[in-house]
Amino acid sequence: MGRKVAQFGLAFLVAVALHALLDSQKSLLGTAVVGVVSLVVLGITVHRSATAAWCAPTGRAERHAEQELDGGAANGFSGGLRAWSRR
């Protein structure tokens, strides 16, 4: 849990710093550079979050799918998809 809190804190500080930089810009070029940096940081964050969500174990849904493949004993069925494929 400590690592997640640290990641949130870092993301918050980066967001605050980017907003401060955006507010301090006087030229259009400076504003554009800060905007591009903001979009790159956002893209990296979204990519990391999506990758973590995709790789994370699903828990209940995964167990349910395994039960169906193993014969669905919890549902009262005998056989299942694996038994059917062996016929």
Q: What's the quick description here?
A:
The protein has 87 residues and is mainly alpha-helical. It has helices at residues 2-24, 28-55, 60-70, 81-85. The chain is elongated and about 45 Å long.
General description of the model:
It is a single chain. The protein has 4 helices and no strands. It has helices at 2-24, 28-55, 60-70, 81-85. It has 2 domains: 1-56; 60-87, no CATH class. With 87 residues, it is mainly alpha-helical.
Essential attributes:
87 residues; mainly alpha; 2 domains; 4 helices
Largest sheet: none
Tally of distinct domains: 2
Low-confidence stretches: none
Number of E-state strands: 0
Task: Kindly state the percentage of residues in helix.
Answer: over 70%
Reading the helices and strands in chain order gives HHHH
Overall pLDDT metric: 75
Structural class: mainly alpha
Shape: elongated
- Alpha-carbon distance between the two ends: 48 Å
The amount of beta strand, in percent, is: under 5%
Question: How many helical elements?
Answer: 4
Query: Radius of gyration, Cα only, in angstroms?
Result: 24 Å
Layout of helices and strands:
Blueprint: H1 2-24, H2 28-55, H3 60-70, H4 81-85
Helix pairs in contact: 1-2
